Amino acid sequence: MFNPANKGAADRKGKPSLNTIHVNVSLYGSISKYLGGTHVAMKVLEVPEGASKGDLLREIGIQESERGYLFINAVLCDVPGLNTGDGQLLKDGDHLGVFSIDRIWPYQYRDGVNMSPELVTALKKHGAMHHSYSHLKDNESNPSTIE
Q1: Distance in angstroms (rounded) separating the CA atoms of residues 140 and 64
Q2: What is the tens place of the pLDDT at every residue in 82-115?
Q3: Domain annotation covers residue 7
């Protein structure tokens, strides 16, 4: 999928990584089309060592506006409209689950969910989990990335 010669992650010296890892990707809802699904798609993808969640999502072709809830290894990392950034590095064997924006995760299941430290920090800054974070957006270059 990734072409280390011109895409994907680089090592710490800026050279393209030639080592690869395998990431289990599950897409739910309308975004499953990016991996050949209709409602659900699951696939193991080979990516360069050092690839981030953003690298993988861009390579698959999923636009940020299409993403809803995003989990890495059953840890909630992003919620609709509250993207904590695309820099989280993936490791061999990671599971990335992404729900399309048109699929809701029932609110009653959200209490007590395991969250990434970045999301915990963002929620402390912006308050409890909401159904929408559009009120936080402004004219920044990446308006839905909250730090």
Answers
A1: 15
A2: 888 889 999 999 999 999 988 766 554 566 678 8
A3: no
